[in-house]
């Protein structure tokens, strides 16, 4: 798979329908990213493509535009299926597709993921959908119960295919693909290209055009530091770094679920605004954790790599790796989460005795030898990272016709809260979340719990 140089720099140079060009403009996209420039000409021709590209490269918009460009909105049957490794990523993908489809009229995008009751999905399927986005397990469940009709399906997307293999979805994917029409267009996106992906590619789309998009992470934008963890407990080392660096937000990556939970618990006990994110958590707890971190009401997220897939934070001050990742590609994706949007980021790796071999492999790709530093001594006045924000959960969402403007109106109705007191708002199907200043939280809860929004009563609580 060879790297290529982008030939297209503007969406206007692509054979996109005018409605989608309007959507692209409304979304604030001006120039194509490298992955979009390289893949969209192939996708829009209707050809199969296999793309190796890093997280945050713009690949979702690339395949979303490809799906929408040939969508027949008059037929309410699934025409595209996107498989994702996690519910979080599936929701993010569905949101991107819906956003780009706004100019096209009534385009129905349905998510089919585990962790939520199947009843509502079954009801939605009965009314038809144009695009399905889901996790392999739940999609296969609906398929085995004959709730899905793939007769009109013309596009199959495997997103984050490497992670789906890592999570053991290979058999599920094969079973789903076997039920799709042979004439479909295939798109496979993967951050890495291990042997398992090569085999999957031969099985799914042997004639595909292969693209490898060069990393957009420049060494000047991400500063890497390495600290010796030989005689120090990991939780204490993370604590010292956070106290010393005082980042606005930080992600701490761990190689095991148990370690992620232990470090998060110890940080919280020391007064840090910190939560864990890993596969052993209930889905609702994972959803709430991701919302709190993305909204800024949690400042430190301690996560495993798989659980963090689908969490896209535009500006992340600091990434800490507790020991080297299992492989160098994963290490690259970890550090690539900082230094986004043109900002300089800092990536710290805590090196234990067991990391020596992987560290030497990494060193081969670096301009200078890695020097292990002793842990910093924070100033005596340094305080644990706390958040000035709190996220409120409201017992209503899209099914209740709630919109962000309705929530803002409810919170500002008595003129005691202003827009400056209100942060991010996210409206999901059954729940809504709004982040407010700590000092305003009590009054915000009272406004929602003691009055109506759009003629209905809802309950709210602080997460």
Report the biggest beta sheet as strand number plus sense, adding barrel if it closes.
7 strands, parallel
Number of structurally distinct domains: 3
- Which residues sit in consecutive blocks of at least 5 with pLDDT less than 50? none
Main CATH class of the largest domain = Alpha Beta
CATH topology of the largest domain: Rossmann fold
Q: Please state the structural category.
A: alpha/beta
Radius of gyration: 23 Å
GO molecular function: ATP binding; hydrolase activity; nucleic acid binding; RNA helicase activity
Motif (Q motif): 9-37
Protein name: ATP-dependent RNA helicase DbpA
Pfam family, one: Helicase_C
Task: Tell me about this structure.
This protein has 17 helices and 19 strands. The chain folds into 3 domains: 11-212, P-loop containing nucleotide triphosphate hydrolases (Rossmann fold), CATH 3.40.50; 222-363, Rossmann fold, CATH 3.40.50.300; 389-462, 2-Layer Sandwich (Alpha-Beta Plaits). By secondary structure, it is α/β, with parallel strands linked by helices. The strands form 4 sheets. Strands 3-4-2-5-6-1-7 form a 7-stranded parallel beta sheet, with helices on both faces. α10 (234-245) packs across α11 (257-269). Keywords: ATP-binding, Helicase, Hydrolase, Nucleotide-binding. Residues 237-383 form the Helicase C-terminal domain. GO terms for molecular function: ATP binding; hydrolase activity; nucleic acid binding; RNA helicase activity. Residues 9-37 form the DEAD-box RNA helicase Q domain.
